[in-house]
Amino acid sequence: MERMIATEKEEHKSLRENVRDFVKKKVEPICIKMDEEDMFPIGLFKEMGKMGYLGVTIPEEYGGSGMDYLSQGIIEEEIGYSSASLALSYGAHSNLCLDSLFRNGSSMQREEYVPKLSSGQWIGSLGLTEPSSGSDALAMKTNATKNGDSFTINGSKTLITNAPYSDFFLTYAKTGDNYTAFAILSTDEGFSRGKKFNKMGMRGSPTGEIYFQNLKIKEDRIVGKPGGAKDIILSGLNIERIILSFIFVGIARRALEESLKYSIERKQFGQHLYEFEMIQDKLATMYTKYETARIMAYESLSRVQEDKMDALHAASAILYAAEISEQVSREAIQIHGGYGYVKDSGIERLLRDAILGQIGAGTTEIRKHIISGALVKQFKDNPRILE
Ligand SMILES: Cc1cc2nc3c(=O)[nH]c(=O)nc-3n(C[C@H](O)[C@H](O)[C@H](O)COP(=O)(O)OP(=O)(O)OC[C@H]3O[C@@H](n4cnc5c(N)ncnc54)[C@H](O)[C@@H]3O)c2cc1C
Hints:
alpha+beta; Butyryl-Coa Dehydrogenase, subunit A, domain 1; Butyryl-CoA Dehydrogenase, subunit A, domain 2; Butyryl-CoA Dehydrogenase, subunit A, domain 3; 3 domains; 4-stranded mixed β-sheet; 4-stranded antiparallel β-sheet; 10 strands; globular; binds flavin-adenine dinucleotide
């Protein structure tokens, strides 16, 4: 198997410093409040548009920064280090919705919608999950029927990131035997929002339901080809998994850094915590898992950059990053003792946020199904695939 790893150029290093500075000044001071009050910082989110983060992968002529997916991964990691929930909302807007709209949208959609989403004038969501279809996404019930040059959409989507605030939804509906992607605006007649969910983690990233009741739109709202949504869904899921894996790399980095700091500061029995062999074991294991997850995320991202993205690498990058961010956050609580269990420490939040990693963007079980399926297929074709 050919291996590749993205290397950061000067522009990436300077972007990382720029985002780090933004996070330190604007996100870090409110990250605990966001969690405690389940508060979405809408003004700050829109400011991320002005900073060029929301439209980072979009060409400048459409209001973006004209950078690459590595840049988007860097933004995810740096925001995720401070607030995984803000990083989740960022990922849903910038990658799942905006980047996919740009890749698949018509010139009208690129001109009308993309600049508004890049600047933060509009907030965006991707609507795939429905009350009766989650992992089995293609069993969706939302349907669109064609009448002349219009479509009438009926159905609903649930667990949608940013939905309580979004102006724009990239969503999917059954059109006969196949599926079509549509651009829906919150101002469309027949659109309504349901409740905002009260979640265990990722608090501050608003998650909600949306409904389409006899929602009529013209066919210029079709994103991509009529009946062509299956490819958009599947390729979107691969990129989404890779980009979102950086949130969990960010969580693991924060958990490890806080644990190193605390084990250097804190003394018990006249010794620093890091002098106890059992704490050394934890730190070493946490580091090794974090570093491996980071390498896997970079490796899979390189494949996107080189146009060689595949489901095997995308699913395994997020599978591992999500699993280890939970393990590393759990150990961080243990290293911090009772203080780690207290909300003000910000440590227990890392674990609650990390758990989403095994559910969103396809669950751990679905990722394992994809990975084993791809491995068996590739191994049958070439038994030396693992070398
Ligand atoms: C905070 C949050 C944000 C989200 N944001 C979005 C968003 O922006 N847009 C969007 O469209 N969706 C979003 N989702 C939905 C998310 O993608 C789904 O929750 C996820 O795909 C799982 O679907 P489900 O919840 O219906 O679980 P189900 O599919 O019902 O699965 C239940 C359990 O059964 C397992 N299972 C299902 N099928 C199999 C199988 N074949 N083999 C083995 N095990 C199986 C699952 O792994 C899981 O453990 C979000 C969810 C959350 C919690």
